[in-house]
Specification:
Layout: E1 7-10, H1 20-30, E2 35-40, H2 52-59, E3 66-71, H3 75-84, E4 89-93, H4 100-109, E5 113-118, E6 136-140, H5 155-169, E7 174-178, H6 183-192, E8 196-199, H7 201-205, H8 209-217
Helix pairs in contact: 1-8, 3-4, 6-8
């Protein structure tokens, strides 16, 4: 895929939660494509963020796709909450779910896009049986739980592997990368075959969000 087709998904984990409407407006005005919502339960990852009410409240503020990333134990229990809250995509972790095929079917039955995610220590091989049925594969490029971490370079090999597997099988999933994304890593990820870049700290710290988004989509541009 070409760099110009990249989509950008700012993560509200790095936003000021006391001014969430302003954060959503910042995302919309930047020309970003999705809004990424990191749900953490304090068990699967060492942090606690927000629940379905936050998703439902944000749904009232925007028509952009809401990309919910469940970093929680037993995601099959909470999936219906986020369907009801208005999520457009729901991604859960392979490491947290025994019956992953059933969870994918549960999401897709509600006409919501279903995604599977892996942490840095999990190989692509662990999710190969799901690649022909998911809509999204989210690769964590940092150890999940906190924003502002450094990109793990071995992520690039996983992206290339997923892109090859998609081409070979004629699959349809988007390859999404979450963690440590900036203009430099974004260019490498796009070259490896990524479709969507999640950006938290870098996006919300950018003086001019629209220029930042365009620089991610078109690495030759200046921020």
């Amino acid at each position: 895929m070409g760099v110009s087709t990249l989509r950008i998904a700012p993560s509200i984990l790095s936003a000021d939660f006391t001014a969430i409407a302003s954060a959503i407006d910042r995302i919309e005005q930047s020309g970003a494509d999705w809004i990424h919502l990191d749900v953490m339960d304090g068990h699967f990852v060492p942090n606690l963020t927000f629940g379905p009410k936050m998703v439902a409240d944000i749904r009232k503020l925007t028509t952009l796709p809401l990309d919910v990333h469940l970093m929680v134990q037993n995601p099959d229990i909470s999936i219906p909450w986020y369907i009801e809250s208005g999520a457009d995509h729901i991604t859960f972790h392979s490491e947290a779910c025994v019956h992953a095929h059933r969870a994918v079917q549960q999401i897709q039955a509600a006409r919501v896009r279903a995604g599977i995610s892996i942490v840095p220590s999990t190989p692509v091989a662990a999710i190969e049986p799901l690649l022909d049925c998911v809509d999204i594969v989210l690769v964590m490029s940092v150890n999940p739980g906190f924003g502002g971490q450094q990109f793990i370079p071995s992520t690039l090999q996983k992206v290339s592997q997923l892109a090859r597997a998609r081409d070979n099988a004629g699959a349809r999933y988007d390859i999404v990368i979450d963690g440590g994304v900036n203009q430099g890593t974004g260019q490498q990820l796009a070259a490896a075959g990524a479709d969507v870049l999640v950006s938290g700290s870098a996006f919300f710290q950018a003086p001019e969000p629209a220029r930042f988004v365009q620089a991610l989509k078109n690495p030759g541009a200046a921020v």
